[in-house]
Amino acid sequence: MVSPPARSLRAHAPWTRAAWRDTAFALSGAPLHAACWAILVLPWTVWVPVDTLSVLGVLAATFLAVLALARPLTRAHRERAWAVLGADVPEPPPRPGGVLRGPLRALRTEDLWRELRYHLLVGPLLGAAAALLALAWAGGAGLAAYALYAWKLPNADPLDIGAHAGTLARFTVSLGSHTVRTAVLTAAGLALLAAAPWAAAAVRRLDLRAMRALLGPDRARELERRVEDLAGKRADVVDAADLERRRIERDLHDGAQQRLVSLAMNLGLARETLTGVPEPAMRVIVEAHEEAKAALTELRGLIRGLHPAVLEDRGLDAALSGVAARVPLPVRLRVDVPERVAATVEAVAYFVVSEALTNVVKHAGAASVEVEVVRDGPALRVRVADDGAGGADPARGTGLTGLARRVRSVDGTFRIVSPPGGPTALTVELPCAL
Fold first, then answer.
1. 136 vs 277, more confident
2. 65-87: buried (b, 16+ CB within 10 Å) or exposed (e) per residue?
3. Domain-ending residue, one of 306, 339, 364
4. Confidence class of residue 94 from pLDDT cuts 50, 70 and 90?
5. pLDDT value at position 157?
6. What share of the chain has pLDDT > 70, as a percent?
């Protein structure tokens, strides 16, 4: 098994494909990195303006030229990354207007200034690194092959260390000064060739990271867009689930419930009108009639739990009035919603009140309940308070966990205060923009 250091050394060997690929990537970017600064500097080398107006004109012209070149250079860098490395640098959303048609409008975009930071600040540094990398490859190759052409060089070489040493050292080195010099320079060349792939990999990583950070989409804006997209998709899923519940409610109401009503009526009619039926048969009819009525009651409760038709037809006030009327406790209900909110929000508010009242009846031991549903600006506030024993904890279930999850599905807030001994107050705020 090859150890990680050995694997790393093998991957960064000078003869590997990755080393030449990284070098090609770095060197291909050098001319592009120098383009913007060449535009800024070149006019001053061929003509020096003498008055302030000319200076301002040259500055404005070069700046507009850089603006016009920024987008083509950015596109070229993206193509370079894809062609050499196979790395995709996504393009940010198009900025409004063209650079030449609306320079002032383009200057207000953050993407343009990020591109200019890459071309004017980061690019020259990467170009200088690419030049040093090319020098390392060329110098390393030349020094590594020093022994092949050293015999053609003159004897008086400035690297002759014997010429600068003392008498004893001069005598010692003079016996093999050419051999020593050749060995030292060859070793230096081999060291440069060994270090060049590592330098190329470092330049490649820095350049690619800078391209993705400055030439790609803004990460903060991209995360914001993704959050908005996910919020929209979640709202669509919630609306779709609510629509599906309504469809199931209509199917049960118009289909199974009507069949059960007809069955219960027929059994009741048979129970009242049939005479002379043996006692066992009559007992079966009576039991079937009672089971049909019980099934009809359960089905009506299930339909109300899915999506009550009165909520869709008449709104929260009427639907919650029906819920409060079925509670075996005194319920003081206040609904102040001048205009109807979104159907999804209405459904969540209805189920919050319905589930809360069910929990009060089952667990609180309360003598009375107060329910308040009020439209408060952009939010619908729902409050259910009772005078029961308290101690309600969402962590222990009792339907509160599912209720909180349903509230959060529409970006609402859920809060319950229930100290031991009571009272309990459940407060929910639902955004009305949905």
1. 136
2. ebbebbbebbebbbebbeebbee
3. 306
4. low
5. 47
6. 74
401: CATH: 3.30.565.10
Distant-in-sequence, close-in-space partners of 392: CB < 8 Å, separation ≥ 6: 359, 363, 364, 398, 400, 416, 418, 424, 426
Final residue before a domain boundary, out of 286, 306, 326: 306
- Which segment of 24-28, 93-97, 228-232 scores lowest on mean pLDDT? 93-97
DSSP line for 52-109: HHHHHHHHHHHHHHHHHHHHHHHHHHHHHIIIII----PPPPPPSS-TTT-HHHHHT-
Whether residue 30 is contained in a domain is answered as: yes
pLDDT tens by residue, 360-401: 888 878 888 899 998 888 888 999 988 888 777 776 655 677
For residues 288 and 326, membership in a common domain is answered with no
Strand ranges, E, within 99-233: none
334 and 300, same domain (yes or no): no
Q: Which two tokens stand for residue 53?
A: 């107006």
Select, from the ranges 87-91, 183-187, 292-296, the one with the highest average predicted confidence (pLDDT): 183-187
- Using an 8 Å Cβ cutoff, are 252 and 281 in contact? no
Residues 58, 72, single domain; the answer is yes
Residue 354 vs residue 244, higher pLDDT: 354
- Which domain covers residue 414, as residue numbers? 311-431
* Per-residue tokens: 166: 């003392």
254 with 371, same domain: the answer is: no
Q: Are residues 129 and 181 in the same domain?
A: yes
The total domain count for the chain is: 3
Q: Which string of DSSP letters, residue by residue, matches 328-388?
A: SS-EEEEEE-SS---HHHHHHHHHHHHHHHHHIIIII--S-EEEEEEEETTEEEEEEEE-S
Contact 235, 431 (CB under 8 A): no
**Tokens, residue 91:** 């393009």
Whole-angstrom distance, CA of residue 350 vs CA of residue 369: 16
Q: Are strands 379-386 and 424-431 parallel, antiparallel or unpaired?
A: antiparallel
Say if residue 301 is in the same domain as residue 318. Answer: no
* Backbone φ and ψ of 287, nearest 5°: -65, -40
Establish if 221 belongs to a structural domain.
no
pLDDT per position as a tens digit, 138-179: 888 888 887 777 766 665 444 444 444 454 444 444 434 667
Supply φ then ψ for residue 334, to 5 degrees. -135, 120
- pLDDT higher at 136 or 8: 136
For residue 199, what are its two tokens?
A: 């330098």
299 occurs within a structural domain: yes
